[in-house]
Amino acid sequence: MIVLAEKGISEYGNKLISFSKNEQKSDEILKLNPRGQVPTFRDGDVVVNESTAICEYLEFKFAEQGATLLPSDAATRGRVLQRMFETQNLMKTLIEGVAYLFFHNKPEEINQDELNAKKKAARTELERWEEYLKAEGTDSYIVGSQFTMADVFLFPLLAFGVRGNLNLSSFPAINAYYQRLEQRPSIQETWPPHWKEGPGTDFCSGI
Fold it and tell me: Domain GST N-terminal: where (predicted)?
């Protein structure tokens, strides 16, 4: 949805689903994606699944409209693509590691040594992104001076962590980056509605 906003596309329908109600396995979703996974995207007769594929489809189709999220310069595009795919490491440690363990177990069932190890891995990964942003310089994005697809992939992971009480004070470059992007119109327009209703669950404290 950030890509749609960056491209200036506002005439589209979207539907929020509830994972707690297992709505991603509904007949409606399974017709679009037999894996029962979201997001899924339909443009007329074209159905595209997987976040990266959807984002690249939109960038290609609307290349002349709105922000350019994948630079035409080969070297810069290579860096953007690298950072895009590197966000999978943050997904693996923060979401599939810490959050998954927290949300799929009762508090009394969580092995604290395992949780601490996963939090340590997430912190190590965040330290890497801190260094990336420091190297880019003040007021930069994750690749240079322009907002790109790499930022589209990175920011939501950070936002998910912050909602889980991730303290960014230990990561000044990430914190400055987060505070700046949080105010970006495309971010504001696509902020999850239920996030505005109240705080999230405290699963990232101590990272």
Answer: 1-66
